[in-house]
Amino acid sequence: MLKLKKEELKDQAQWEEAGIKPPQFDYQNLIDNTKENPEWVHFGAGNIFRAFIARLQQELLNEGEVETGIIAAEGFDYEIIDKVYQPADNLSLVVKMSADGSLEKTLLASITEGLKADSSFEKDWDELKEIFKKPSLKMASFTVTEKGYALDNMDGEFFPFVLEDFKTGPEGELNHLMAKVTALAYERFKAGAYPFAFASMDNCSHNGQKLKDAVITVAEKWIENDLVEDGFLGYLNDDSKVGFPWSMIDKITPGPAPDVQQKLKELGFENTDIVKTNKNTEIAAFVNAEAPEYLVIEDNFPNGRIPLDKAGAIYTDRDTVNQVETMKVTTCLNPLHTAMAVYGCLLGHTSIAEEMEDQEIRALVEQIGYKEGLPVVVDPGVLDPKAFIDEVVKERLVNPYIPDTPQRIAKDTSQKVAIRFGETIKSYRDAKDLDPADLVVVPLAIAGWLRYLLAVDDEGNEMPLSSDPMLDELTPQLEGIEIGKPDSVGDKLKSILSNENLMGSDLYEVGLGEKIEGYFKEMIAEEGAVRATLNKYLL
């Protein structure tokens, strides 16, 4: 039997015979080197980190380009460390799933430790503080999702637990991850103001800026409350000391797939249990993902960079990263994904690939990308926008071996609307020869999300909503709206569609508010009206 344990790495032949690529380095030596001179801490110990980011480091280790691994730190769902990392000695199995059904399997050993980033776990927290004091540290990276950086709600008010962190300061028990990492940066400042980079690798627009804004806000509040000295803010704002590089990451990484689980069992692989934590994270010791992947990073690393470009990443300047990220997040992939997710839930789909066989949804995806997205895309030079959409539509979304669901993609949509749809609307608003009022598919996507929030599918059945930090604020605003009664809408959508924090702009001011209201009313006219509305405007 193949088991994820350190001692099992010594027998490389057993892994190779099973078609699994073992690491080409001494794992214990890697652990020792990383302990002595840590270079990389990563916050967010989930699936995309292991499937992509940590696997790039493994490739560098195999080629002798680096000598240290990655320390994984989890600041939200601590069961990931307890139930996945620790039982497997921090090892994982990465499975790339190609459209032809083939599986490429890699035994991942680039992660040397899994720590819980919270002061209530004293040993782990003390170790993280010591790591941040080490001059060797080059980067603290993040895949914590867009909401991991949010300090305030849709009205721009700080969350109550964030206000507590502002009063607590770096020495106390902190709630929000951004307060925790600011406290760790303060340890580094006190130890010698050593240089390093805070690098967001999350799938969101201007991710480096979001991270910097959050860290700077926490530091400013601590200074206001006399909890840290003024020099700490100067350290964080000094580009020669602390970098906040922007990045664009792209790799579809769904939860662990039962089909993959079964194939691994047939190989004799033992660590196939799929864990669902109390915080609804679905994770396993194996992680499955599509083959296509992109990582473009701003070259801003004051203490030296990890040579990820030697494993396929692209280092470039901020403007180019911004153009690539804007291309992907606001036009060429993410808007397509989000639009098909909410409509997929409404129309009863449970598979992204299956949705692409639905003529209305396929038309929705293609028209958002090709018809309304491409006219406002700036070609970044390092990736071709048209070719990128072609790959998304013709290869990636249709891959039946990627067990992704609209329900997963629909998570946290409130955090995505302003970027995935709002940026295209702004581009049309600011263009001399375009008018946002002429848009059809983007406002249809927004109307579809509002219709989704009613928690009733197109056949009139109750439908569970995916997790979203704004559900408790948004759903009460839609109370009283009834399927079959368009007049019940009244002015209930106005506060949502005019909210610039949520939508990116006041949609009434750009000529789309009434249009979206109209689409929404059509979609609640009767059972089956969602599909009928899509058919009317897209086909």
TrEMBL record:
It catalyses: D-mannitol 1-phosphate + NAD(+) = beta-D-fructose 6-phosphate + NADH + H(+). Pfam families: Mannitol_dh, Mannitol_dh_C. Transmembrane segments: none annotated. The keyword Oxidoreductase applies. Keywords: Oxidoreductase. InterPro entries: 6-PGluconate_DH-like_C_sf, 6PGD_dom2, Mannitol_DH/Oxidoreductase, Mannitol_DH_C, Mannitol_DH_N, NAD(P)-bd_dom_sf. Residues 41-310 form the Mannitol dehydrogenase N-terminal domain. Residues 322-476 form the Mannitol dehydrogenase C-terminal domain. The keyword Membrane does not apply. GO terms for molecular function: mannitol-1-phosphate 5-dehydrogenase activity. SUPFAM superfamilies: 6-phosphogluconate dehydrogenase C-terminal domain-like, NAD(P)-binding Rossmann-fold domains. It comes from the Bacteria. This is Fructuronate reductase. It comes from Halanaerobium congolense.
